[in-house]
């Protein structure tokens, strides 16, 4: 294995573990069902009322299992896809709350305290999470970066011409 | 769709499915968990007349919540009342959770019968787990007209 490939593997592992740890931490106090989490979801005023409780019961488990898979290395491509989907959803919900002028807590980690307010600055960690998830998906070979594809096409052309 | 994309989607669907099963199983097994299906919206709290409210105030056996805007609350309110303006309710929820146990009696008021904020806020509180929520229908104007003690200024 070349030094570059070893570095890429190490970075992928670090990103995977970090994403997994964040999901496990974010879900740990919501797994048994939390009225505070229902409140936090309701504050965004995005979900129709019938979906509120099922969403608040199921989402923490999706976060937890995604986190466990990312940390243990089981079903990593699928877990990274779910992770990317969840981060995209959080980003959209937060941006929409900010644009609608809602003064609400994020509901991301500590539900007991007032918690972090949703503001533009709260989008950066979620953007980093989305980027990390996409990076892990690419490292698993789920898709190919456009630049890698171009580079490979170039190599192929050179080989054919040479 | 290539096989790698198929296996990625399959993995994601598998994790999601197991999550749903675990969520439902744990929710059913853990006592005191939240309902899986959203309960129907609660009706407003039962109305209380002036005498009932005065007795509760005198015995200090209820928490008073003022549903009027902050400037009206600051101008005058029932002593010990917490200000939770209807339009600002979400911001106050964590504080209410900290300060008021679910079994505590709550009396919500606003500007009297024409004001709907107390009815709406009482239903909102019941939806969030407080069961003993009542509405002081005649509201602050009747309290003031009866010459009762009032407090002024911001909430403590």
Topology:
The complex is a heterodimer of chains A (162) and B (156).
Chain A: H1 3-27, H2 35-43, H3 49-72, H4 76-99, H5 123-139, H6 146-161
Helix pairs in contact in A: 1-3, 1-5, 2-3, 3-4, 4-5
Chain B: H1 3-29, E1 46-48, H2 50-59, E2 63-66, H3 70-75, E3 82-83, H4 89-99, E4 106-109, H5 117-127, E5 133-136, H6 139-145
Parallel strand pairs in B: 1-5, 2-3, 2-4, 4-5
Assembly form of the protein: heterodimer
Q: Can you write the helix and strand succession of chain B as a string?
A: HEHEHEHEHEH
H/E element string of chain A? HHHHHH
Structural class of chain A: mainly alpha
Summed over residues and divided by their number, the pLDDT of chain B gives a mean of 90
- How would you characterize the largest beta sheet of chain A? none
> Which structural class should the secondary elements of chain B be placed in?
alpha/beta
**Overall geometric form of chain B:** elongated
CATH topology (level 3) name of the largest domain in chain B: Oxidized Rhodanese, domain 1
Chain-averaged pLDDT of chain A: 87
> How many separate helices of chain B?
6
The shape of chain A is elongated
Give a structural overview.
The complex is a heterodimer of chains A (162) and B (156). By secondary structure, chain A is an all-alpha fold. In chain A, 71% of the residues lie in helices and 0% in strands. Chain A has 6 helices and no strands. Chain A has helices spanning 3-27, 35-43, 49-72, 76-99, 123-139, 146-161. With 156 residues, chain B is α/β, with parallel strands linked by helices. Chain B has 6 helices and 5 strands, in the order H-E-H-E-H-E-H-E-H-E-H. Chain B has helices spanning 3-29, 50-59, 70-75, 89-99, 117-127, 139-145, and strands at 46-48, 63-66, 82-83, 106-109, 133-136. In chain B, strands 1-5-4-2-3 form a 5-stranded parallel sheet. In chain B, helix 3 (70-75) links the parallel strand 2 (63-66) and strand 3. The longest helix of chain B has 27 residues, at 3-29. The mean pLDDT of chain B is 90. Chain A binds chain B through residues 31-36, 38-39, 43, 49-54, 56-58, 60-62, 64-66, 69, 75-79, 81-82, 85, 102-105, 112-115, 137, 140-143, and chain B through 4-5, 7-16, 18-20, 22-24, 26-27, 30, 33-39, 41, 88, 90-91, 93-95, 97, 128-129.
């Amino acid at each position: 294995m070349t030094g570059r490939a070893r570095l890429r593997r190490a970075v992928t592992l670090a990103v995977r573990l970090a994403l997994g740890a964040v999901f496990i931490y974010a879900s740990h106090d919501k797994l048994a069902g939390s009225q505070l989490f229902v409140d936090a979801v309701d504050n965004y005023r995005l979900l129709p009322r019938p979906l509120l409780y099922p969403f608040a019961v199921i989402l923490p488990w999706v976060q937890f299992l995604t986190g466990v898979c990312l940390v243990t290395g089981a079903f990593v491509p699928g877990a990274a896809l779910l992770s990317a989907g969840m981060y995209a959803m959080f980003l959209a919900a937060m941006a929409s709350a900010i644009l609608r002028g809602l003064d609400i807590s994020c509901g991301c980690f500590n539900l007991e305290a007032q918690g972090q307010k949703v503001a533009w600055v709260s989008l950066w960690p979620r953007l980093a999470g989305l980027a990390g998830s996409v990076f892990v998906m690419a490292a698993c070979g789920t898709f190919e970066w456009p630049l890698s594809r171009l580079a490979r096409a170039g190599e192929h052309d050179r080989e054919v011409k040479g | 769709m290539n096989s790698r994309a198929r296996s990625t989607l399959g993995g994601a669907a598998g994790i999601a499915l197991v999550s749903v099963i675990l969520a439902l199983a744990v929710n059913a097994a853990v006592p005191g968990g939240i309902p899986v299906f959203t309960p129907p919206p609660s009706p407003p709290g039962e109305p209380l007349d002036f005498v009932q409210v005065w007795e509760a105030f005198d015995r200090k056996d209820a928490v008073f919540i003022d549903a009027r805007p902050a400037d009206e609350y600051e101008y005058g309110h029932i002593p010990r009342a917490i200000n939770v303006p209807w339009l600002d309710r979400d911001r106050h929820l964590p504080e209410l959770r900290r300060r008021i146990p679910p079994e505590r009696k709550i009396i919500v008021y606003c500007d009297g019968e024409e004001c709907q904020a107390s009815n709406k806020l009482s239903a909102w509180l019941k939806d969030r787990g407080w069961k003993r929520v009542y509405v002081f229908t005649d509201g602050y104007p009747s309290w003031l007209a009866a010459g009762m003690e009032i407090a002024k200024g911001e909430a403590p």
